[in-house]
Amino acid sequence: MAGPRICRKLQTAPAQMRIGRHLLSSGVRFVAFACTIPAVPTVQQDDDAIRITRWDFAPGAVTGWHRHDWPYFVVMLTDGILRVHNGTDVIDNPLKVGQSYGRKEGITHDVMNGSPHPIAFVEIEIKKPEAL
Q1: Contact 101, 107 (CB under 8 A)
Q2: Do the Cβ atoms of 11 and 35 come closer than 8 Å?
Q3: Which among 10, 32, 71, 79 would be 20 to 30 A from 17, CA to CA?
Q4: pLDDT in tens, the chain (132 residues)
Q5: Which SUPFAM superfamilies match (predicted)?
């Protein structure tokens, strides 16, 4: 499988701007994906220790710019391309059904379905590892 590829460089924006319901400031200088199709989150479990969310994306759907306050894992339910806006570049990540990955807390990004078909994944956020 080929690795991620950079799709395009991002445009700059004012140091303070509103993206959806999020106000970005403190020198943040990028534009998230422009899209009117939101990804659909379905929270399956949310307690003191963990949050499990299924995300369903129509083609071109996006999560919106967000920050992960906890470490998390993603498990793909379909084959697809996760197009990730990381604040500098847009990177296509082709993933297969059943493939998983994990990230540390503090990740800030926007995620788009870069596939020509619907995709879905389950995201598992670890709030309190010691409580598991």
Answers
A1: no
A2: no
A3: 71
A4: 344 433 333 344 434 444 443 444 444 444 467 667 899 999 999 999 999 999 999 999 999 888 999 999 999 999 999 999 988 889 999 999 999 999 999 999 999 999 999 999 999 999 998 988
A5: RmlC-like cupins
- Give dist(CA 90, CA 110) in Å, integer: 9
Q: Assess contact for 100 and 57: CB atoms under 8 A.
A: no
In the CATH scheme, what architecture does the domain 5-131 have? Sandwich (2.60)
Q: Pick the closest to residue 38 from 57, 17, 24 (CA basis).
A: 57
Burial of 55 (C-beta count, 10 Å sphere; 0-12/13-18/19+): buried
The number of C-alpha atoms within 13 Å of 35 and in the hemisphere containing its C-beta is: 21
Measure the CA angle with vertex 42, ends 39 and 47; round to 5°.
130
> Which of 3, 33, 53 is closest to 112 using CA atoms?
33
Tell me the C-alpha distance between 132 and 125, whole Å: 12
Amino acid at 125: E
Q: What is the CA radius of gyration of the chain?
A: 15
Domain borders along the chain are: 5-131
